[in-house]
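User: Predict the complex with 4'-deoxy-4'-aminopyridoxal-5'-phosphate.
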Amino acid sequence: MTNPSRVARPKSAAAFERATRSIPGGVNSPARAFGGVGGTPIIVKRADGPYLFDVDGYRYLDFIGSWGPMILGHRHPAVVEATIAAINNGSSYGAPCELETELAEMVVAAIPSVEMVRFVSSGTEATMSAIRLARGFTGRDLIVKFAGCYHGHVDSLLVSAGSSALTLGVPNSPGVPKGCTQDTLILQYNDVQELADFFAAKGGQIAGVILEPVVGNMGLIPPSAEFRKELRRLTHHHGSVLIYDEVMTGFRLSYGGAQELFGDTPDVTALGKIIGGGYPVGAYGGRADILKKVMPAGPVFQAGTLSGNPVAMAAGIATLRELKQNPPYQRLDQLTQQIATGITAAAKQYGHAHQLQRIGSMWTLFFANAPVTNYQTAVASDKQKFARFFWEMMDRGVYLPCSQFEAAFTCAAMTDEHLQETITAASDSLRAMAQV
Ligand code: PMP
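Assistant: Here is the predicted structure with 4'-deoxy-4'-aminopyridoxal-5'-phosphate placed in the model:
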C-alpha cells in the first residue's frame, strides 16, 4: 500500500526499511507495523511527558503510551529517579530482593481480590500462568474465552483473539497445533444466554473463564452489568476459576482496576503494563488458596530468570506510589470525557456515522452505526474510514492506536491545552474526511 500520509518522513522510512532487513516485518510486535492503517510506522527517537518524537523531528501527542503502561506520561521524574537508583544497585540478581515484596504488598493492598501475587515478565506470561493455575487448581481442562478478547500470544488463547491478531486477520495463527486449542471454548462477549447455556451443558468441566473486564483489544467495549454478574454467579456455582485479565485495565481505570470500578471479585487477576512503569513486568494474583498451588508453595510449575527484576520492580513501585499519592483517575476521566464530547460533536457536524466508546481514560472512536458490544459488531465497523482518520490525526501531530481494534489511552501528563489540541485535530480531520 502506498503511504497514506501527506507528510514526508524520510528518516522514519529509511530506518523502517533497514529494520525490515533484519527483523521480520521490521517490528518486534505486530501491532506496531501499522497493518490496520497502511503506510510506514514512525520510528521513535525519544519520548517526554505526553509526547513522542520521531527520527524526522516531528512531535506527536501520544495516545498509545506504549499500549498502556505510561499512564503517568513518559519520563516521569519519580520513576526515572527510582529506576536509576535501582540500576546503580545492579541490574538483576536471580535471587530474592526486598523490592519484589514491596511491589507485591502494594498490589495486594490495591486489589482486594488479590491476596497473593507472583511476578513474571509480560502480560502473556501472566495469562498463560493464570490458566495453568486454574487448570492445576481445579483438575479440569476446559478454558472459556470470549471472541475478540486478547490475552497475549499464549498458544491456547490464540483463538478468536483481538488486538493485532484481529487487525491482521489471523484469528488462528499457524504454528498453534489443534491440540493446544481444543480445550479453549469461545463464547461471545456480553452474551448472557450463551454463557448460561454453555455452563448448563459443561459447567463441571470448566477450569476457568478468562476475560478482559473492559475490552481494549477490539477497541473499547464495556461489559454489561448482567454479563459480569452472571459470570461471577455461574463460575462460583460450578467451581470454575474466574480470571480477570487486567493487564490493560489494572491501575488504569482506577487504582484497583476494573474490578474496583465495578465492585467485582474475580478469583484470579492477570496484571501487566502499568505495574512495570514502562519496564517488562507481568503478574498474576488472586485468592491465597489458589495462589498457594504455585511452585514452590504448591505443585503448579512456573518460573522466570528475570521475574521480579529489581529495576522493573523499582519502576513499578514508583509508578504505583505516584498513582496512590496523587490519583489522576478523576482528572483523566474528566479530560477524556471532554475529548470524547469534542470528537463526537465534530463527527456529528461532519456527518460521520460513529460510536465514541469510553470508560475512564480508555476510548475508541468506531466508525459504526450501532453500539459495538462484541466481536461481530466490532468487525462490522468501517476500518477504511478509521485508517483515513488515523492518518489525518497523525499528520496533525496526534498519535492514536494504529488500528480500529485497539483502545486509546489518555495520560496524566496531558493538560487542557493537549485536550484542545486533540479536539481541534479531530475536528479538522473529520472535516477533511467529509470533503473527499
Ligand atoms: N492481556 C491483555 C488484556 C493485553 O492487552 C495484553 C497486551 N496488549 C496482554 C494480555 C499481553 O501482554 P504482553 O504484550 O505484555 O505479553
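Residues 67, 122-124, 127, 150-152, 163, 212, 216-217, 245, 247-248, 272, 282 surround 4'-deoxy-4'-aminopyridoxal-5'-phosphate (CB under 6 Å).
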